[in-house]
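Tokens as discussed.
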């Protein structure tokens, strides 16, 4: 099996390597380029594709849901900053609005199933409407749910739009063997529970890898990640 991760944040990419090394997420190749630099040919030969991979939450959630590592699927949590209340409010005019690049790759390859999520607020709903329209025009059946982390046992609310698209008429392209590169491996200390308070969660995340810097990078990695138990519940409802 071979899994493709696209993550252009070096800190998060290093985190992915540590998690892969310790078997917590699917084994695979990490592409640190921007998604805008990725071509359809770059994606051949992989069973799964995880874009905006962050710290591997979708791979972990798929495993929790019983989805085999060699079962094809695409995932993508497009940057939320353009549509988040904490962002600058530029929306579709923000350079971090990268759905067009993701959607173009989806159209070129036609994966059977695609999962994603976005912030659940007015701007996020407008974004979701565009995603739904684009995918339905490309031959996908589309569904979404507005879910919060507390519904999966987390201590915080954190509402998100989780969505799934199933190909109706599209076929996956033929795949070829992939060639993986090996990066630096970190030292994993312990797994992290998602049902603890924020200070305790940050303390545990800081102990993940002795080669990763502390502070803002760790906080951002946690804050921008999906909540795997919540994604697990959504995946189970969609398959």
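Sequence:
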């Amino acid at each position: 099996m071979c899994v493709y991760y696209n993550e252009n944040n070096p800190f998060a990419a290093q985190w992915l390597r540590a998690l892969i090394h310790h078997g917590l997420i699917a084994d695979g190749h990490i592409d640190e380029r921007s998604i805008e630099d990725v071509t359809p040919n770059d994606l051949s030969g992989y069973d799964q594709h995880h874009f905006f991979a962050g710290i591997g939450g979708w791979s972990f959630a798929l495993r929790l849901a019983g989805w085999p590592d060699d079962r094809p699927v695409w995932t993508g949590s497009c940057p939320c900053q353009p549509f988040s209340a904490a962002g600058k409010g530029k929306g579709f005019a923000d350079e971090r609005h990268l759905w067009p690049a993701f959607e173009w790759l989806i159209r070129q390859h036609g994966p059977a199933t695609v999962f994603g999520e976005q912030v659940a607020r007015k701007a996020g709903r407008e974004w979701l409407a565009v995603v739904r329209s684009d995918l339905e025009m490309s031959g996908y059946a589309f569904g979404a749910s507005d879910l919060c982390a507390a519904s999966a046992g987390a201590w915080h609310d954190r509402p998100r739009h989780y969505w799934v698209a199933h190909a109706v008429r599209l076929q996956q392209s033929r795949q070829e063997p992939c060639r993986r590169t090996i990066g630096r491996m970190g030292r994993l200390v312990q797994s992290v529970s998602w049902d603890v308070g924020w200070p305790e969660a940050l303390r545990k995340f800081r102990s993940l890898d002795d080669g990763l810097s502390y502070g803002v990078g760790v906080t951002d990695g946690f804050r921008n990640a999906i909540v795997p138990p919540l994604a697990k519940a959504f995946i189970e409802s969609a398959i």
